[in-house]
Amino acid sequence: MVVSDAILVALIGLGGSALGSIFGILASAKLTQYRLEQLEERVSKHNNLIERTYHLEEVAAIHEEKLKVANHRIDDLEQGGGT
Hints:
This protein is mainly α. The protein has one helix at 5-81.
C-alpha cells in the first residue's frame, strides 16, 4: 500500500493542529483556574472585611449606648446635687 506525499503531509498537519489545539486548551484552562483562585481569594478578603466592619459597628453602637447612659447619670447627679 503506497501513501501519497500529499496524504502524508495532510496527516502530519492534522496531527500538529490537533496537538496545538489541545495544548492551547490546556493552557487556557490553567489560566482560567488561576484567575478563579485569585478571584476567590479577593472575595474571601472582602467578605472578611465586611464581617469585621459589622462587628465594629456593633461595638460602636454598644459604646454609644453606654456613653448615653453615663451622660444621663451625670445629668441626674448634677441636678440632684444642685438642690
